[in-house]
Give the backbone structure.
Amino acid sequence: MTIAATSSPSSVNPLTGLASGSAASNAAGSASAFLQLLVTQMQNQDPLNPMDNAQMTSQIAQINTVNGINQLNTSVTGLNSQMTQMQALQGAALVGHQVTVDGNGLVIKGGSGSGGYSLPGAATDVQVQIVDGNGNVAGTLDLGAQGAGNHSFTWPASGVADGAAYTFKVGAVSGSSALAATPLMQANVVSVSTGSGGLQLQTSNAGNVAFSNVVAFN
């Protein structure tokens, strides 16, 4: 006689014939019922055809495996909860600070605008165009040769009010070949939240940003 065990919280326990409850109570109930059934099975076995030792060992190993999986699932769930809480605390420390994320918004503050970009390889020439809210080019920065990686720039925004809506475009070449530069912007973190998508940062100028998409912490 082979006894099958299951850890599904919504299945019927084949040892007791009752619907399973939580993982912990199901595991405890399965183990108790298994032992009772095993003792009964041994007491009423056919003397001429006793239970095989290998069969009994296999059944004991089976119930131990189910219990072990339930305990592991409980531990992993607890660790995930702790990690989410720790991540939320780390994110809360960013409120009121700036982070660097993908985007081409230009932060105007104190008479200058700050932005950045990322290069996949070394560039022989990099040029940044500043664009106002009407789509007009308000300024150009010739940054010359730049290495691969993340870079920042500052545009002297004389007479421009703080918070004005400006964007920028980055053009980069390596010799006669164009490089795909990725614009980076500075975002002001105003709050954080957690959900199924992980930790989210709410910013004043870049919308909602996933914590995993933050390029740098300023």
Summary: Confidence is low (pLDDT under 50) at residues 1-21. The first strand starts at residue 98 and ends at 102. Residues 126 and 172 are 4 Å apart (CA to CA). Helices lie at 23-43, 53-92.
